[in-house]
Amino acid sequence: MASRSGCEAPRGGAVAVTGDGPEPGAPLSAEPRDRAPDFGRGLLTAVVQDAATGQVLMVAHMNEEAYAATLRSGRATFYSRSRGRLWEKGETSGNTMRVMEVRLDCDGDAVLLRVDPRGPACHTGNRSCFDADGSARPAGGPPDTR
User: Fold this and answer.
1) Cβ-proximal residues to 20 (8 Å cutoff; 6+ apart), any chain
2) Which partner for 122 in 54, 65, 129, 141 could form a disulfide, CB atoms 3.0-4.6 Å apart?
3) Distance of alpha carbon 13 from the chain centroid
4) How many CB atoms lie under 10 A from the CB of residue 115?
5) Is the pLDDT score of 15 beyond 60?
6) Whole-model pTM?
């Protein structure tokens, strides 16, 4: 059955891949599912979430090589559009991300990485790229109560 977004309701939920070993960098083991990411239209959007708190930490992009490297190494690896190459999160800063789970959206064109972060996710030093108050509210929306 299709939802309003046009996504087919997945049988058995989203594709999940879990890192079950205590060692950072341990390969992830895929659950048997009949879905795969769709790289046919280019890069996947990768949403990175703290597995312990649920906080969204950052958004990046993955090509097929970055996705495979992430599954192989258990470390968050992305494709940098500005650098034109793969980069492993923390390769220069030391702020690595151990991937605990990988989920595909219903269309297979976006991925959710649930991670154990080692240090801030944002290049500014903030825990999350969404920490700064750059939020917008709809006109007539609720007042900011922070």
Assistant:
1) 26, 29
2) 129
3) 17
4) 26
5) no
6) 0.76
Distance of CA 46 to the CA centre of its chain: 4
Q: Is 128:135 a contact under the CB 8 Å cutoff?
A: no
Query: What is the Rg, in whole angstroms, of the alpha carbon atoms belonging to the chain?
Result: 16
pLDDT digits (tens, 9 = 90+) for 66-118: 999 999 999 999 999 999 999 999 999 999 999 999 999 998 999 999 999 99
Report all structural domains of the chain as residue ranges with CATH numbers, in order of start: 38-130 (3.10.20.810)
End-to-end Cα spacing for the chain: 40
- Identify the residue whose tokens are 């968050």: 76
Residue 52: strand, helix, or coil: coil
pLDDT of residue 142: 64
Nearest to 50 by CA among 95, 99, 15, 122: 99
Distance CA 48, CA 90 (A): 14
